[in-house]
Design goal:
It is a single chain. This protein is an all-alpha fold.
Amino acid sequence: MLARRELAGAARGMARGVQAQEAAMTTASYLSAPTDPAHGRVAPRQLDIEADTALGGVGIHSSTTPKIAIGIHSSTGPKDAVGIHSSTAPKKSVGIHSSTASFKRIDTRRASLGIAVARLCSAAQIHPNTYREIRIGNCVAKSATIERLMGALDRLAAGAVVDEQRTLCLALLRMIQGQLADRTGWDRQVILSQDLKNQRPNDPLYVQAARLRRCAVYLLAEGLMIGKAALGHALGISRQAVHKTVSEIEAERDTSPEFDALMQSMMDLVKG
C-alpha cells in the first residue's frame, strides 16, 4: 500500500518536471526567435521594437520636420528677404541722398553768408580737404560731419548777425553825430575824428564829441526803439550805461526848451 503511494507520488513528480521543462523550452523559443513558425506569433521584444519605431516615425514626420520647414520657409526666409530688400537697401540709399542734400544746403548757406570754407572748417574742426572732396562728390559726408558743419555754421551765422547789427548801429550813430554837429555849428569831421576811448575832460572838442555821441545814443534808443541791451552790446557799452544816458538826456530836455527843440527835430529826422 505504501509502495503504491510512493510510486504515484514519483509519477506525479516526473510529470511536473516534464511540464516545467516544456514551459522553459517554450519561453526560450519566444526570446530567441521573433516569430513562432507554427502560429506566427510576434515575440514581446519585437513588439517593443516596432512600437519604438512607430513612435519615432511620428516624432520625425509629424513634429520635427514640420517645425524645421516652418522655421525655414515662413520665418527665417521671409525675414531675411524683407531685411535685405525692404530695409537695408532703402535706408542706405536714403542716407546717401539725405547726406548729399544736407551738405549742398550747408554750402549754399555758407556762400550766402559770405563765410569762407576755411573759416567754417576751422569752426567745425574738419579738414578743408575733406570739405573739398565732399563738395566735388568724391566721397559722401558722414552724419557726424554734417552735424558738426551745421552746428558751426549756426554759430558763425549768429555771430555774423551780431556783427551786422553792430555795424549798422555804429553807422547810424556816426550819421546822427554828424547831423548834430552840423546843427550845433561844429565841424563834422573834427567831431567824428575824436577818440572817445581816451577821456579828456578838459578838452572842449572831446567834451562836445562825447555830448553829441550821448545824444545820438538817446535818439537810437528812443527814436528807432532799439533795445537798450542790444544797443549797448552793439556799441560796446553796458545796458546800464545806455539807460543812464537816456535818463540824462530826458532830464536835460525837461530843463532846456532850446535843447528839447533840437532833439525833437532830430527825432523827427530819425523816425522819418
